[in-house]
Amino acid sequence: MSIDVIIADDSAYLRKSISDILKGSELVKILEFAKDGEETIKFVKKYSPDVLVLDLLMPKMNGLDAFKVIMEECPTPTVILSAISPKNLDSSIQALLMGAFDYIIKPGGIGAKDLPRFREELLAKVLLASQSQIKKIFKKEDGDYGKVKSIRQEIIDQIFDFGQYLNTLTPIQESKENQEVINIGKTKKVQKKATAKSEIKQKESAKISKLNVAKPTLKTSLQKSLPSLQKRKEPVYTPNLTPIKGVSISSNLVVIGASVGGPRTITTILKEIPSNFPAPILIVQHLSAHFTEAFADNLDSECKIKIKVATNGEHLKPGVVYIAPGENHMEISVDDKKPCIKIYKGTPINFCMPSIDILFFSAVRVYRNRTMGVLLTGMGSDGVEGLGSIQKIGGKTISESDETCVLFAMPKIAAEKGYADLILPNYSIYPEIIKFGRK
Known about the structure:
Layout: E1 3-8, H1 12-22, E2 28-34, H2 37-47, E3 51-55, H3 63-73, E4 78-82, H4 89-98, E5 102-105, H5 115-129, H6 134-137, H7 151-156, H8 160-167, H9 188-206, H10 218-225, E6 253-258, H11 262-270, E7 281-285, H12 289-302, E8 306-309, E9 320-323, E10 329-335, E11 338-344, H13 356-367, E12 371-375, H14 384-392, E13 396-400, H15 410-416, E14 422-424, H16 430-437
Parallel strand pairs: 1-2, 1-3, 3-4, 4-5, 6-7, 6-12, 7-9, 8-9, 12-13, 13-14
Antiparallel strand pairs: 10-11
Helix pairs in contact: 2-3, 3-4, 4-11, 4-12, 13-14, 14-15
């Protein structure tokens, strides 16, 4: 069974370059190329691909407008191609909030040294997007929502280690130098080898039936396509859970963690929280530092409650949502006997920075059983043990259910370990948050 992909970008060279990268996996089949938003909609409706790779800045109809139509009429797992510039940062975040699977920074402005990492990140995200539940979640048929177990979701259960690997791929930074470097790093000699390999793969693929004969698994394909995909070991993290005494606590606390699929889910929840919510809410969303400010601004404009990017040293206030800044850990500390926020660079935990576990463990030290922990959609295991520590101390814990998770991994592990007091679809989580905040 191939992963069918459509590539939409107004640059013919970039379309070809991306195609060459994705063909590095024996599972990927490129169905069509679109050069503008109108063609993108037409091809997505015609082919119903497993994944769409979509540029936001295109002629006739831009990618954001095309994406709106696609998610309304034929929902498709989409990886956004984003250029880091003030011109379209907001558009990238809007796309994520509308349900895009993930994003990747376009190679137009990166240095040659970053191109191997771009290849890995692009292929990894497209392969993982093909395993998402976006089509199921966006189904329009009445009575069908959440009842059909996705066949691809069964594969997800076997590739948690790949999710941890994906978390090690930090976003590629744009450089002012080498602005014209889009060469994906292939010499003619390498291209000839790739062509030969491609021909071999095509012959092998012809022998594979769609469903009922031996074929490469996603994990096997990833290991072949991404040479650095190995089971990585990281330093063992032992959290300090010693209670901080003498703290003046005037409210309960809600801490939320999310990864892939989180922006839309977080928006769904926070839209329902009133402006006079009597407790602070702290959120770790795995997101590049380039996008954190735009994400918070979008949320603040969409929601009644105040939302901001957290800053180091500020005291926690009720009725405020604090978003962890990208590429920094956020934890709860104490200043002048009052809870405050600590922001710092550190070692990635669960291959993540910011780490959900860091936030959750710190909440246990300060707020103890007055903490509610919520673990939402995402790959890997970040936040799982932190949620368990909140439950152990007598706080309230929630995991998002399979019904609405774009990727049912982090909350699935927490639920299987018995760490979740409640397992709920995202649209049923906000009443529990409101009730807990008002205790």
